[in-house]
Amino acid sequence: MTTDVRRVVATAVEEELLRADHSLQWLSQQTGITGRALRKKMSGEADFTVADLAHIAQALDIPVARLTPSPH
Predict the structure, then answer these.
(1) Is residue 47 situated within a structural domain?
(2) In the structure, what pLDDT confidence band is assigned to residue 1 with cuts at 50, 70 and 90?
(3) Which of 25, 16, 9, 24 shows the shortest CA–CA distance to 60?
(4) What range defines the domain where residue 26 resides?
(5) Cβ contacts of residue 7 below 8 Å, gap of 6+?
(6) Is residue 26 part of a domain?
(7) What's the DSSP call for residue 49?
(8) Distance of alpha carbon 17 from alpha carbon 68, whole angstroms
(9) pTM above 0.85, yes or no
(10) Which distant-in-sequence residues (6+ apart) come within 8 Å of 15 by Cβ?
(11) Is 50 helix (H, G, I), strand (E, B) or coil?
């Protein structure tokens, strides 16, 4: 994943967390992604996996497509 894509995904996750009024700690607890790993992903230091995005979308009760960049 390129840095730009990492940033787009992290921004989408952050926006959805804000919309749902939840914290990264809550997301970590709901998804099983450690807090440390989640912080690295949110800062662009590490990639989100497809499984991560599926777990995050499920926790937030949203379609996974809302967390991914548009193909255009």
Answers:
(1) yes
(2) low
(3) 16
(4) 3-60
(5) 44
(6) yes
(7) P
(8) 15
(9) yes
(10) none
(11) helix
* Number of domain units in the chain: 1
Enter the tokens of residue 9.
């995904």
Q: Which residues contact 8 (CB under 8 A, 6 or more apart)?
A: 69
* pLDDT digit string, tens, across residues 3-53: 788 999 999 999 999 999 999 999 999 999 999 999 999 999 999 999 999
Structure token pair of residue 24: 């990264």
Q: Is residue 15 in some structural domain?
A: yes
Spacing of C-alpha 48 from chain mean position: 7
Q: Are 68 and 58 in contact (CB under 8 A)?
A: no
Specify if 43 maps to a domain.
yes
Distance in angstroms (rounded) separating the CA atoms of residues 57 and 55: 5
What's the CA gap between 21 and 70, in Å, rounded? 24
| More confident position, 1 or 18 | 18
Task: Enter the tokens of residue 42.
Answer: 């949110």
